Amino acid sequence: MKITRTGGIAALALVGALALTSCAANETPSGDGSSAPESTLSGTFNGAGASSQGAAQDAWVAAFQTANPKVTINYEQTGSGAGRETFIAGGSDWAGSDSALSDDELAKTFGSCAADSKAIDIPTYISPIAVIFNVEGVKELNLDAATLAKIFKGEITTWNDPAIAALNKGTTFPDTAITAVHRSDDSGTTKNFADYLNQVAPEVWDQKPADAFPYQTGEGAQGTSGVVNAVTNGSGTIGYADASKAGSLGTAKIKVGDEFVAYSPEAAAAVVAESPLVEGRAANDLAFKLDRKTTDPSHYPLVLVSYSIVCTEYADAAKGEFVKAYIGYITSAEGQKVAAESAGAAPLSADLAKKVADAIASIK
Amino acid sequence: MTAVTARITAKKRLGDRLFSGGALAAGALILVVLAGVAIFLVAQSIPAFLIDPSEIKGSPSSFWAYVGPLVFGTIWAAALALLIAVPIALGISLFISHYAPRRLAQGLGYTIDLLAAVPSVVFGLWGAGVLAPSIQPFYAWLVDNLGWFPLFAPPVSGTGRTILTVAIVLAVMILPIITALCREVFLQTPKLHEEAALALGATRWEMIKMAVLPFGRPGIISAVMLGLGRALGETMAVAMVLSPAAVISFVLTGPQNPTTIPANIALNYPEAHGSYVNVLIATGLILFVITFAVNSLARWAVARRKEFSGAN
Asked: Distance between CA atoms of A310 and A122, rounded to whole angstroms?
């Protein structure tokens, strides 16, 4: 029984090898290169971290496991901070995180990595954050960062405030009160939203960005769907949510330079691609210092970037091989398309995708 | 006398021993489980009392400053829910036990029991999706017209996701428990007491006041305490409906509402890490203590009233 099975596998391998070599004559070599090593992957691999990329991870895992039937991948949505901690302690093979590793974290010893090697940040998931609103009779809304910050801080309390009217010539606003809805649970979306306001309008938004909403004002709702629900059902409401979940609600244009920019996947990807990298990092570390203060109207700076944090060299070579293949897949054009369809993510721009591919190629 | 005792001991069969052993094991098991939960809570909570409070969300001055608004919110929401639910529940159960024609009473009883089977997440969806938006105009009216009254101080919530909405949802959730228990208790009222009251010329309401309610008082208290327990511990519905903030405020219709301990744990646990996890578990310990105190209070109240209850 055992002999026949081994024989069968050997025969299959032989046939496969013959088939592949015969194909190689008339196919592009890349086709062979990708299919040959993938079939050798097997085992169970664990990731943990940000829930922002949870929906995309589910789709990626499903697609990757279909292509590699012997691989089992678990991605636990424990939150960014817990994900980084687990990864540093060696409890997972990679981490998903809405913020890159801090310098303090980089100074630690990484449990899964080979001795004396460190981890790098690779951007794998970009999602524009939309400012959603529900005001009777108002179809379009233009806002700049300072006004947006004042609304969410509770300093502007009615829709017919002169500050809003000045940005929206030709629109008449009702005198209804503004209800600003924020996330009541901790969220990377809140952190990125606050980071935008803090960078562009620091004189209004004076709190350091964090996962929790910093001010005791406005209303809280649970999760992206909770915020979208509250904004939809309320009157005179405004909120922020991952753009893919905005549904039929009105979305505000935000002021970039001298123009008002609506969110789009391209504009979101562009601001990431053209932001500078964090200085003093390893050569292939792609931690971005997002340039929210951009004045280029082809950019949409209200964007969430989620990273995959991986070792530069794994203690276990099999894990290195897996991470290389898996992160390679999720950052490929195909993987990004899957994320766009399943989670409304903005695909990486072409030159960023190339940098990411180079970084992944360096993983050992 | 001694002969009798000896005969009983001799007759103890296998079935008797198995059953008494099983009952003992079941009784012991509940203590073991409770002790296990208590030990887990205490052990995991200890770091929370020692850490630097700046590590806690919102950087309060101490752990107690963090947990204070939560304790207030938990008790406030539950108290409001009881205030709404208890009179209605008493009315329904008296109607079923003493007023309604038999057929109607049966149907109504089933309906109430059905309400108890609805999962809390469904109540949460209903509260956030239907009740909050439809009750918001009423809140706006209240604040406009009764804004001078501290409970309805402006500003009004724009979405209706306030502590009063939560209390209404909680009231609906605890209504079936209280109603079902009270109904059973009222049905147990000795017929002789009722007939005696009627024979002395009491109206039906006087009969209920003199015979049914005094007899049922311990049962009513038990039922209310069970309902209170559920209201204190309710998680999903509160998390989904409430617009929370770390405040102590009696305002019923505003956008900033004190939240409850279980809802706060549910909202923050998924993204918590490090010592913040211990802080959340410590708030769970506080809730455990509150629930324990409430139950002991109920026991004490029931025991104290026993001799006046009119039973036998």
From this structure: 8
